[in-house]
Amino acid sequence: MIADIVTIAWKEYKDFLLQRGGRGMLTSLALMVVVFGVFLPLQSGRSWVESPVSLVSWVWLPLFLVTGMIADSFAGERERHTLETLLASRLSDRAILLGKMAAAIGYALGMTVLFLIVGLITVNVTNWDGQLLLYPAASLVAMLGFGGLAAVLVAGLGVLVSLRAATVRQAAQSLSVGILILVWVPFMIMLFLPRDVQQRLLAILQTLDTRLIVAVLLVALLVLDTVVVGLAMVRFQRTRLILD
Amino acid sequence: MDYAVETQGLTRSFGPLVAVDAIDLQVPRGTIFGFLGPNGAGKTTTIRLLLGLLEPTAGSARVLGYDTQTQADRIRQHSGALLEHSGIYERLSAEDNLEFYGRVWHIPAGERKARIKELLTHLGLWERRKEIAGSWSRGMKQKLAVARALLHRPSLVFLDEPTAGLDPVAAAALRDDLAALVAEEGVTVFLTTHNLAEAEKLCRLIGVIRQGRLLAIGSPDSLRSSVMHPRLEITGRGFNEQVIAAIKARPEVASLQAQDGHLIIDLRANLEVAPLVSLLVNAGVEIEEVCKQKASLEEAFLTLMEMEK
Q1: Rounded CA gap, A221 and A231, in Å?
Q2: Which of A4, A6, A8, A11 is the mutation pick for testing B, counting most B CBs within 10 A?
Q3: Among A46-55, A69-78, A214-223, which is the least confidently predicted range?
Q4: Mutation target among A25, A26, A78, A85 for the B interface, most CBs of B within 10 A
Q5: How many angstroms separate the first and last alpha carbons of chain A?
Q6: For residue A90, which residues of chain B lie inside 8 Å, CB to CB?
Q7: What is the DSSP letter of B278?
Q8: How far apart are CA B266 and CA B276, in angstroms?
Q9: Pair A49, A133: CB distance under 8 Å
Q10: pTM listed for this prediction
Q11: What's the rounded mean pLDDT across residues B56-74?
Q12: Closest to A169 measured CA to CA, from A58, A67, A27
């Protein structure tokens, strides 16, 4: 099973990186590294590394990276007429599904870690005062924990969307809109709440233990992940896919 | 007898449409079986049922001894398939396409490399293995898909119209490669096609399907003779009324037409024609040419289609 998941992920990476002739995709990836690993850290200076809020605020990044790859997973195979041949192979439904999800999550987390490392180097080089600057451990763990679990959630949702979408474009659009709503709607609601309600909510939040909030959110994400991945497993059945 | 494919009343409906209608089929191991039928006859649905990609509405099927509903994973493990579309990953190179499926079938690395080289060399694609498959012609992609289907040395290969959409030269080349590879590997082939020449050239056993129903099954020869009797055409001089009456009276003669020094005789069965020729010679007919014609598979197929209308 593990070998099959790795095989699917290997194919997904090759297929994904060779989009637009390979060179175009590598240019896009390099551009992202420049923006998130060099340009933004240069703009933020030392606070890019030292501020715990700065780091955690980048939790959304893996979500968008997952979206790019997972939308292509099944809708792309269907659009390019390769899905049926894959389904006619000896691979189990579960290996195909988990292989595709693992590839997308691995790509998102891998790129995020790369941005963080390049950002760290950039900030240290441009702000060197004889002491190495490092990300706060708790923020780093929270960012990767939330980012990882959120990436699993989006990958699961992405599979469900990609299985139903007729084209990759349609899948990508649906997912992007969904994530925008997921990320921005809570902020927008907060912004438009009456000032006294906002103050009361903030007062309640300040009385709560931060570690407790983080733990509760992590558990909630974990439960959501389990439900969504479970749904994806139920939905992903050869006999149903052929009929789609 | 050991059958690679065995179905009993295999049926699949999509709402009111019966795509496969109570098919009883037996394909012995090591046979190249041709499944003939017009577009929409139910050929692709049958393959999907046999591979366990679809569940039957009624009936059952066993492929390589495994039940399609409960042991489909075993069937797919021992089968190869070239389905309606070639299924080639067009962004990957030809070599990577085979590398991927080699890994899927857990072929050890060394053996995988050797097998890929063997197949691509056989199909004349080895020198171009590093090229992106999407840049290839349709014929080359189909050849690559054939290589992929045979990569793991399956016991049974499903080929769904492998030469569809190819120009005649590419189709003939693929047919030759396919015949040579299949003979070399000794696999059972389940081939769907509506190309009758292809079926005639490759298949030892043929099934004819229309609107989901299996109309006939047998060797190409038996199919021909089951729907159309052999015809004898004799050219010569001296076909008088007495001779014609004598010939008509023979039990093996179904009908006879005489026109300008030609006798066209439809025989009741594929019998010896020497007694008829002797009769003509003894009656003083000067024979120039005797030609025994069999119905082509195309004629047999068309007759079957007409009979079912």
Answers
A1: 15
A2: A11
A3: A46-55
A4: A85
A5: 26
A6: 73, 76-77, 104-105
A7: H
A8: 12
A9: yes
A10: 0.82
A11: 94
A12: A67
